[in-house]
Amino acid sequence: MSLPLHPCDPLDGDEITAAAAAVRRSGGLDDTAWFETIALAEPNKAEVRSFAPGRAFARRAFVCCYERSSNRTFDGVVDLRSGALEAWRHVPGVQARIVGDEFLEGGRIARADSRFIAACAARGITDMNQVLVEPWAAGHFGLAGEAGERIAYGHCWLMNADGSNPYGRPIANLHPVIDLRRGAVIRVDDFGAVPIPPEEPVIARKQGLRGDVKPLGIVQPEGPSFTVEGHLVRWQKWHIRVGFNVREGLVLYDIAYEDKGRLRPIMYRASMAEMVVPYGDPTGGNFRRNAFDTGEYGVGQYYDPLSLGCDCLGTIRYFDAWSHDWHGAPRRIRNAICLHEEDFGLLWKYTNFINGEVSRARSRRLVLSGISTIGNYVYGFFWYFYQDGTIGVEVKATGIPFPTATADDRSSAYGNIIAPGIDSHTHQHVFSYRFDMAVDGDRNAIREVSFESPPMGPGNPHGNAIRKVETALATERAAQRNLDVASQRYWKVINPGARNRLGQNTAYKLVPSTNALPFLHPEAPVAKRAGFMFRHFWATRYAADELFPAGWYPNQHAGGDGLPRWTKADRPLENENVVVWYTLNYHHLPRPEDWPVQPVVYAGFHWMPFGFFDENPAMDVPPPPPAHDCC
Ligand SMILES: [Cu+2]
């Protein structure tokens, strides 16, 4: 077995194999069981903090299995040093995620069903090999025959004959309801045939490629400015550990910035912890269309192998990632995580108008990213680290907007015609990012800052006053907040025990950007399962098992788990280990220009130092070399 260098290093192939073997040996499961997750069990924080190179540390795998014969989900922990199954339990009333192998099998089950074949034939489809059935997690709608069973709700397309676009020709209103456990279709929901759009949209470049695209190279003749040691990345002042698991994909640990010779922590752990994409068409079976891509499927298992010059440009350092199939066999994703630096325009500049002297520095940023292709959609998860201490978080959404067929060429009230015969419905991509904060240490607190215009009068005689109002959000209930354009509200995480040279508490500020509120009614079944989406900002007191804002097992869950449940305790947040959860909602009505493949749309936010440093920490960035004839 290869040796991990640090407690937070992701599991490698040998460790995945060993964990699976331990569960097979000691888990008491029969041979119908399969592996949902084999991933690093989050190491004990104290042990991570006391880590020193060469010192022995524990190594554990979290494993989740689903046993078909009994319809039971199990999870537990394998001690990889001893091979012992340390903990193992049946988790009552939950359903494991739908993993990639099961997703494919669900389609095969539907295509073999005589009722579904007949429904396709009634639509003129005879070659079932051309039918794509995606078994989407069924949610929890309280419908007869579904409670307690392992159900998937099928969405269907007729694939292009040349295989160029599996989603090109939607078979609307036809939904096989699949019992994934018994391998059978329990019913076919048929809301009436809709003409299948013509085979026009292919994902191929057009004839007559534009001819004026000259080579554009990124040259770093002395190599990149970062160093990599195992999964530790050092870049200029930054220090970041790269992690990965099959559920969340990229995970970052120990984010810290070196200031005056001192490594100052900012975050202990950061990840995209959950996401949900609810669609807004209430007709037929489309109300069931929503995807918790992380908690119901797992974005990490679908990370793409990346290609130099195509996905990434410049001097790239890739990290492979280890996923696994449902038999527990490891699967290496080559070049799954991309690390590189980018020029980012101007960092700072001042032209002294008295003597004409110009001072300036160019900005560059360190980029860590991975791209997950999950069904029709493609999500790029990007993390940026800037020289001035700013951290950027960005999702790049591309791929194929979910297409459905329409009987006429008029857009429905719930969507937009994006190609002949193809309607694509309004939906929202809602991401929940989790940040285990460590601003100058583990004892932090939350402040909300907003601005107000006092009434005109003695205190504001000219009507220009902008008064800052800073409020402590001292408990978990107080810290459930939404954005507000009128007050320019934002939140910061402070360290009550650390101060800058001005006597201010050191802090990092969460800087929102694109966002939206949900249109789901709070009592809607999907909303109950995704309570996190009703607040842009949450903060909780750290608890080791609170990693996922819709709970560990959102698949078919009745709802209420995760953030809404934990925060009922209303735990204090002053001078505590604070975890911040930020909801990023991208509201999307597809355009014709999003077809056949959507140009990348960007949604993100930043963390910005606010009094964390004594002054601009990037004043030590050297001027560009003289060859550039400036500065
Ligand atoms: Cu979208």
Please, could you describe this protein's structure?
There is one protein chain. The protein is mostly beta strands. The chain is built from seven helices and 31 strands. It has a ten-stranded antiparallel β-sheet. Strands 10, 11, 12, 13, 14, 15, 24, 29 and 30 form a nine-stranded antiparallel β-sheet that branches. It is globular. Bound molecules: copper (II) ion (CU). The site of copper (II) ion has 5 residues, from strand 24.
SSE arrangement:
Blueprint: H1 13-26, E1 33-40, H2 45-49, E2 60-67, E3 72-79, E4 84-91, H3 100-111, H4 114-122, E5 131-137, E6 151-158, E7 169-171, E8 174-179, E9 184-190, E10 226-229, E11 232-235, E12 238-245, E13 249-259, E14 262-278, E15 290-291, H5 293-297, E16 317-324, E17 330-351, E18 358-374, E19 377-386, E20 391-399, E21 404-405, E22 415-419, E23 422-425, E24 427-437, E25 445-452, E26 467-472, E27 490-499, E28 505-511, H6 525-529, E29 537-541, H7 563-566, E30 578-588, E31 598-609
Antiparallel strand pairs: 1-2, 2-3, 3-4, 5-6, 6-7, 6-8, 8-9, 10-11, 11-12, 12-13, 13-14, 14-15, 14-24, 16-17, 17-18, 18-19, 19-20, 20-31, 21-23, 22-23, 24-30, 25-26, 25-27, 27-28, 28-31, 29-30
The structure holds copper (II) ion.
Copper (II) ion (CU) binds next to β24.
